[in-house]
Design a protein that fits this description.
By secondary structure, this protein is an alpha/beta fold. About 55% of the residues lie in helices and about 15% in strands. The protein has two domains: about 120 residues, Rossmann fold; about 55 residues, Arc Repressor Mutant, subunit A (Orthogonal Bundle). The protein is rod-shaped and about 95 Å long.
Length: about 220
């Protein structure tokens, strides 16, 4: 029978994990509420497997992975967590973690994970990928929300800026398009405001970078 150490700062979760492991023919040799408790217990009990809460009181489950005293236990460690960031996942995988299970997943997945880790196989909850994908989509949506809408010149603004890009002065642009010099200035001002340009050169460069002008 495999001997397991379990750690979580929530008594209800701890009791639930212990009951599950006992039903799955694992012997729970230590119950811990903090990373410090874990360090003491691994020395005293030398368990075969560790089931650690990712965010328990320090050192956290993730922090324990990098401690010299835990080096031999990392491949035999399963992390439990409610949520996981991409950086935390990378840290855990790079450390060589044995397994990773989300608390929201079915209880039987934890046993499946422990069985795999006992056999020397690294096991990651399939729900982790889905959760990270949701986080990525949410972050991208926030970026898109902050990003200004695509800038579009009116046909007349484009004509005015095109001629300005060719080096024409306002009077020459007005003559070419049948506009007064004041109207040309108004179009240039409107286009500059759209691209947040403070002068003629910035306007032309920004319009070219945004592919709003034909290549020179």
């Amino acid at each position: 029978m495999k001997r397991a150490l379990i750690a979580d700062d929530h008594p209800v979760v701890l009791a639930g994990v212990e009951a599950l492991l006992t039903q799955g023919s694992y012997a729970v040799v230590a119950r811990c509420a903090s990373g410090e408790d874990v360090l003491r217990a691994v020395i005293a009990e030398d368990p075969d497997l560790l089931v650690l809460d990712l965010n328990m009181p320090p050192p956290s489950g993730l922090e324990l992975l990098n401690l010299p005293a835990m080096r031999d236990y990392v491949p035999r460690t399963v992390l439990l967590t409610s949520e996981l960031s991409p950086n935390e996942l990378n840290t855990a995988l790079q450390a060589g973690i044995g397994g990773l299970v989300l608390k929201e997943s079915a209880a039987q997945l934890l046993l499946q994970c422990l069985n795999a880790v006992s056999g020397g196989v690294q096991w990651v909850d399939p729900q982790v990928t889905k959760q990270l994908l949701r986080q990525s989509c949410t972050s991208q949506a926030k970026v898109e929300k902050r990003r200004p809408a695509a800038t579009v010149f009116t046909p007349r603004e484009r004509e005015v800026v095109e001629l300005a890009a060719q080096g024409s002065r306002n009077k020459e642009i007005g003559r070419a398009l049948g506009l007064t010099e004041g109207t040309v200035k108004a179009y240039l001002h409107s286009a500059s405001r759209k691209l947040q340009a403070s002068n003629r050169m910035e306007l032309v460069n920004a319009a070219r970078q945004g592919r709003m002008l034909e290549d020179p």
